[in-house]
Known about the structure:
- By secondary structure, the chain is an alpha/beta fold.
- The protein has helices spanning 10-13, 39-43, 63-68, 81-96, 99-108, 136-147, 169-175, 195-200, 218-226, 246-250, 265-283, 294-301, and strands at 28-31, 50-53, 72-74, 128-132, 151-155, 178-181, 206-209, 232-235, 254-256.
Amino acid sequence: MITSELPIDPRSILGAYDEANRPADADAIVCLLRDRIDAALMDAAPRLRVIANVAVGYDNIDVGAATARGICVANTPDVLTEATADLAFALALAAARRLGEGERLVRSGGWRGWELGQLLGQDVWGRVMGVIGLGRIGRAVARRARGFGMDVLYTQPHEAPGEAGFVSFDELLARADVVSLHCPLTAETRNLIDARALARMKPTAILVNTARGACVDEAALAAALERRQIFAAGLDVFADEPRVHPGLVASEHAVLAPHVGSATTTTRRRMAELALGAARAVLDGERPANLVNPDVWDRRRA
C-alpha cells in the first residue's frame, strides 16, 4: 500500500518495499532491483495492482506472472541514462589508466615518486569502442566515445544493421579496444561474455559492464585477467550481488564499483519520483508512463 504522503527523498522511498514485509493488503509495491518479486509474492498480495521497479532492468520481477494476474509492471528508463553512461566511461578510463592500482599504491605509502615505466596503461583517445546493446545508455556511451575521437562499433542481435558501425558480435570483440555492455539480462545474454568471447578480444582490450552482472561469466573473466588474456575490466555489476567473485577481488587488473551507475542525487531522486508516479497513476486509474506489460492495460480497457 502507498500513500500520497510518501517522501521523495531517495533514502526514504527506496525502502518502500522490504522482503521481510509482505502485507496481504498491498495495492502497490515500489521495489528495488535487488528485490525478487515472484509469483508466490503476488499470490500473497491478492489486491496488488502495480509493481513499480526503481530501475530500468526488471529481471528481478516475474513479468509473465504479473501479466497473468493483471498486475501492471513499470520501470524507470531515460532518467538514469546519462549518469550510467558517465560511470561506464569512467570505468573504461580507470581500467585503461590503471587508476585503481595507482590509488592503492599512493594510499599504501609505497609510492616512491615519478618513474618512466610506472603503471603504464592503454590509450583510450582515438581507439575503438565496441557497444553491445545500443539502447539509450549504449548510445549515450557512444556519444562520449566519439568525443574522445573513438570509432564506435555496435552489435544488436535482433536488429538489422541501421547505421555505420554495425558489425557482427565476433567482429566487434576482435576489433574493439573497449567492449562496453549495455544489454538487458535475457536467456540470450546470460554469460554472453564467456571464455570463448574473451578469447576473441585483443590482449590490450578492456571490458566494461554496467548492465547486469550475469551477462559476464565471472570465473572466465577472472581467469582471463590472471592470464593477461585481456588488459583489464571495469565492473559495476555482479552476478550474485553483493558477493563478488574472489578472482575478481584479487585481480589488480579489475576496477570494481558497488553498482553505482545511477548513483547521483539528481538521478536517484528522479528514479524514485518516476516509480512513485507510476504506482500512483495505476491506483488513480491512469496508464503509467513506463508500462512494461501493456497487455494488462489493454485488457483492463476492454
